[in-house]
Inverse folding.
């Protein structure tokens, strides 16, 4: 890594002002897992790291919060994945979030990696991360994955770049209708988490809609509707410490045996966390059953355009959705 | 042999083998001017700056207070191995992907390669060297030896750290699944996972028998 300075601001205003003066050269640092990886690969060479862990107790309180709120949950951007995974008193309805936080990376990484960093990390596309190659995202003229090695790339929503969004927490947070609070030049704003993510057609230099110097402060999960259950299902090549091939997080509101609401979110198959709206619509108003789940699961890949090597993700995603629905609704899998 | 320095493999590498290797791998940073320091035109407000260049930090390392100097870009792993010559913690992938450099920071398992030296200012760091008490191996370390939980040994320090942390935080009898979860980030290419699990179960059993 090239030499740099560590800047330890005590206030949010000081952190933002310092970063805003030279955004490219002065990234914020939280857990630093993604950032140090990029720096070790020579993909970033910042002059300063603005250390968010240095914020004073008062100034950093919102970013460090992990607390119940009127039936819901507030999760600060600086909360580690490990702290989230082992949080006591997490409502059972938020099980998908706990499962995802326990499944990402490794125990040691989860102690350092933060919720904010997990949502804002750069994609793991091997072309983007190759120090000697230029892809669309790194200033080149074309996506190298589109006609190259693309078995881990997007089947949905891709083009002109085919990354998959790397966050494992994004899918369960969107499935649980999380909102995100951002601190920027105009003060604070809150938006649905799904609106944080920018597809490549909209923005090629980043995967989010934050402006330079803006800080992701915290997420809020609303109080779950009575009967809401959520689950997270993932397929990886290795059982531990691997990036997902595909994942699904879903929440369903079940009243008696009838599904009254559903949010189904796919991960690692699209450049953003992907709402499977066709599945959601087909579920609502129906009685939970193996037959229903077998019928709606194929709708998860509506609109899929697989590349040469990732057609397997279509069947994999459908299978994960089906397995998740069975588990969430407590319907035994027939076969 | 009178007066000759005793040569060990590790000492040999430390003495002259590794020095040119390290120098040649240092990359563009070694020959360049240090990164631009905080300039008078760009004053710090409500913040402190560390570096560029060496800066002191205090930590507790294996129970002893230490004051060291480290550059901001030095990882905790580099501080331990290259600067303090505490080499039980191994460097393998240098990307947090293998678990060989796992250490305890305030009791939590962390990758030393993905931690900056200055991150541990004021904190307690425990390496594999700190698991023994008064030079006597811990029950877990003894179980690793007795049950052959290692072959080449490169993953062993990290395995011991992960399993020690599990033993200190787990209440009641340990399950295989708990141990598998604890070592989910520790790669062993010799394939000693089963023996690591057996050794950790054995150490847990010994503890509960007390």
């Amino acid at each position: 890594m090239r030499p740099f300075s560590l800047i330890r601001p005590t206030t949010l205003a000081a952190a933002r002002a310092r970063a805003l003066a030279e955004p490219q050269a002065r990234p914020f640092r939280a857990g630093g897992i993604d950032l140090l990886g990029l720096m070790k690969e020579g993909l970033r060479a910042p002059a300063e790291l603005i250390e968010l862990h240095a914020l004073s107790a008062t100034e950093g309180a919102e970013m460090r919060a992990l607390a119940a709120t009127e039936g819901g949950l507030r999760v600060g951007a600086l909360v580690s994945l490990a702290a989230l995974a082992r949080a006591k008193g997490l409502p059972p309805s938020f099980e998908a979030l706990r499962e995802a936080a326990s499944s990402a990376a490794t125990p040691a990484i989860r102690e350092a990696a933060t919720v904010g960093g997990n949502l804002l990390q750069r994609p793991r596309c091997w072309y983007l991360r190759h120090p000697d190659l230029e892809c669309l995202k790194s200033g080149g003229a074309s996506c190298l994955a589109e006609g190259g090695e693309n078995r881990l790339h997007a089947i949905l929503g891709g083009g002109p770049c085919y990354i998959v969004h790397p966050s494992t927490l994004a899918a369960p947070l969107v499935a649980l209708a999380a909102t995100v609070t951002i601190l920027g030049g105009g003060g604070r704003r809150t938006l649905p988490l799904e609106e944080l993510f920018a597809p490549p057609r909209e923005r090629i230099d980043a995967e989010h809609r934050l402006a330079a110097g803006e800080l992701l402060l915290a997420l809020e999960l609303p109080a779950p509707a009575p009967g809401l259950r959520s689950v997270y299902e993932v397929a990886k090549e290795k059982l531990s410490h691997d990036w997902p091939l595909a994942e699904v997080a879903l929440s369903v509101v079940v009243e008696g045996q009838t599904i009254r609401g559903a949010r189904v979110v796919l991960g690692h198959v699209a450049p953003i966390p992907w709402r499977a709206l066709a599945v959601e619509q087909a579920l609502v108003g129906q009685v939970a059953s193996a037959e229903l789940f077998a019928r709606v699961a194929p709708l998860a890949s509506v609109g899929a355009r697989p590349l040469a090597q990732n057609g397997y993700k279509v069947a994999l995603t459908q299978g994960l959705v089906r397995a998740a629905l069975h588990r969430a609704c407590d319907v035994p899998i027939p076969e | 042999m009178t007066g000759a320095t005793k040569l060990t493999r590790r000492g040999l590498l430390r003495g002259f083998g590794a020095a040119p290797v390290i120098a040649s791998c240092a990359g563009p940073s070694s020959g360049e001017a240090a990164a631009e320091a905080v300039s008078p035109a760009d004053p710090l407000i409500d913040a402190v700056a560390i570096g560029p260049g060496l800066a002191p930090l205090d930590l507790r390392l294996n129970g002893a207070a230490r004051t060291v100097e480290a550059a901001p870009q030095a990882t905790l792993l580099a501080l331990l191995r290259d600067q303090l010559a505490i080499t039980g913690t191994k460097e393998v992938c240098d990307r947090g992907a293998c678990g060989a450099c796992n250490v305890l920071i305030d009791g939590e398992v962390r990758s030393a390669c993905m931690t900056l030296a200055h991150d541990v200012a004021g904190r307690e760091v425990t390496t594999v060297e700190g698991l023994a008490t008064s030079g006597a191996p811990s029950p877990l370390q003894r179980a690793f030896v007795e049950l052959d939980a290692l072959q080449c040994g490169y993953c062993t320090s990290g395995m011991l750290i992960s399993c020690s942390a599990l033993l200190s935080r787990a209440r009641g009898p340990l399950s295989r699944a708990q141990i598998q979860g604890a070592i989910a980030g520790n790669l062993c290419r010799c394939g000693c996972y089963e023996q690591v699990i057996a050794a950790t179960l054995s150490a847990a059993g010994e503890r509960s028998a007390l």
Observations:
- The radius of gyration of chain A is 20 Å.
